[in-house]
Predict the structure of Transcription antitermination factor NusB.
Amino acid sequence: MEELKISLTTRRKLLVQMYYRYLLASSSLEYIKQDILDETQAQLDEKTALIANDINEKLEELIIIVEEHLSIDWKWERLPALIGAIFVIGSYEIKYTDTPKPVTINEMVKLTKELEPDFDYKFINAVLDKIRKI
């Protein structure tokens, strides 16, 4: 049986979708993963599943990292869930993967423009850039 491989962009988008729903509904991550896969008829490769589980284990830490780098006018609770999910995935990738940090930031900005076009993508860029420097 051939191992399923998905692109990094597709992986990022799936992870953002998972964590968006997770932050909104607080359902189990396993339920949300399956729900997204059923809806999109997509398949989850083993690496994406492992990353999702690792993010889940580090979620509190990742949220704290984001909170520490938000401007004084922003609080985690005030962020739209989708933006929170983008920050979680971006922070994880910056902190725990070998992906070049500027690539991660650029990909998160592109996802913001695609999924939440009315949100100020420069805010995403600024916060993730601060996180990149730690």
Summary: Residues 8-132 form a domain with the N-utilizing Substance Protein B Homolog; Chain A fold (CATH 1.10.940.10).
